[in-house]
Every structure is written in C-alpha cells, then in structure tokens.
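Contributing new records

If you add data, match the layout below exactly. Sequence lines come first and carry their own label; structure lines follow with theirs. Keep one chain per record. Anything else will be rejected by the validation script.
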Amino acid sequence: MKLSGAMVAGLALVLSLGTTPAAAADPETGTEQAQILATNFQLPFPCGQTWTGNSSASSAHQSWEIDFNRGGSADADLGDPVVAAAAGTVVISAHQGSTNGFGNLVKIDHGSGWSTYYAHLNVRSVSAGQAVSQGQQIGTVGKTSKPGNNISAHLHYEVRLGSSYPSNIQKAVFNGVTFGYPAQTLASKNCGGSSTNPYTPQEACGSGYGVVDSAGLGTSGTVYLLYNSGNGNNCVVTMKSTSLGTPTATTAYLEVQGSTRKTDSGNYGYYAGPVYAYAPGKCVRWGGKAGSSVYDSPFEHCGS
C-alpha cells in the first residue's frame, strides 16, 4: 500500500486481499484522490504499536473524530508518544485554555487543504512554523482540556479538509484504508523513521501472489513482477528503499503484449501499485521508477 503511501472509503492504496480488480488509475492532478494518495496518512503512534480508536464514546464529537487508547486503566496511556500522521508544517502548538476542550493542541498543515489535529496532549514537543516528518514525535498522550473538564488520558485525533467546521471533518484513513467506524483496533504502520520498508510485494499484491522477477532501482527501491497461478493475473509493485514514509514520485507499470499498458504513478510513501493484468500464457513488459532510477523490461515471462 501507499501511502499513498487513503479521505473516503474505497480509496485504499492497496487493493483488498483476494480481489482481482484492474490496476489503479493514475490520480488526476488536483482531485481529492490525488491529494489523499500524496498525503499518505498513518496512525499517529510509533511503528508497530497497537491502539483502539472510538468515534462514538464522546458526546463532544461532531462526526468522524477518533479517541485513541491502549492499556487497561483510565490513564494507562498517559505520556505515550504521539507522532505526526503525515509530513507537514505545524500551524498550532498551544494550550487552548477556555477556548475549547482541546487542551494542549497540535495542528499540522499537510497542504492542499488537509490538516490533522492532536488534542489533550500532556506535552507538546513541536512549535508553530516547524516542519515535521511523518512519524516524528510531536507530543505525548495526555488529559488536558478546558478548566473544569476532567477527562481520562487519550488522544483526540481529527482529519480536516478546508475550513467550514464541522463539515470539514473527514473520515480518517490510515495506511490507505478508511478507519472502521465507529471503533477499530489497529497496528501502526507509521514507520517513516525506519530504514526498512514495512511492506512486502506479496502484501501489496495480495493472497496467492508469488514473486517471479525483480529489478533494482539503484538505492531507491526495487520493482517486482508477481504472478497468481490461481487466477492467471500478474501484478507489479515498486517498493521504495529510501524516503520511507515521505511521499515521493514512484511508478509501477504492467503491459500484456497486445494490450494497453497499465500504470500507477504518484507521490507515495512506501510503494507504487499494485498494477494487475490477466496474462496466462502471454508475454508481459513491466517496470517502474523510484528516485532517478528507472527499469523497463523487454516482453518476457511468456509462460507465466
């Protein structure tokens, strides 16, 4: 998945496991889909941590806000790290006092009208105007609010698009998949600080796919050709090796001889694709790009 690098359902950056749809179309510049793919939101907690989100437990919620907790007691999460869901610029880092119930609030602007809110923080570790990377710690889970509002420790998280409150509050998308409202437990894929891509080609393409070929893209990544003997489909993904978690130009394509090439190209955090094509007994041409490196195969693997 991409992160692209998803904020409405169905814009997942990886296709659901076990399905065999056509390749994802290139996102049209300026569309909401293109913005979502470029923003590549991840869970606002360090890589590998598991958190439970709930959108219906607070009467203060207007629509798609989420309160996150883990642990078995009311304040078990107090002081746990909170990280940026995507790269951007901090536009608010302040205690909101009596203005609202947010307490210590960090707001990050991600461009194209997208922003994320992290409320009730115990500590804020970034300042307004500061550029932050995806996965960078911005504070810790807390229970700050307006005077007289006693709450237990949790992270209040919002995604907004535009400025018309509360209609600008959007459904949250993590790792390319819309949050399972009203409640869901998720493991964080916010691994921007990692030197290893947290995804595999098989995870990107789905169940039943095995790697049949690959080509290096310098130090920037690797493009993979996979095949599923159960349904006769090839799949191509370009996995990044650098700038992980940061959206950068990445491309994957697959062309069955005699048919139109299918391409997925955009600014993605972890990989481009999956691109699928039905090709039993046919030759395929495949390739991709990451960084400045490009790979283009000849027509080959005619029996796969």
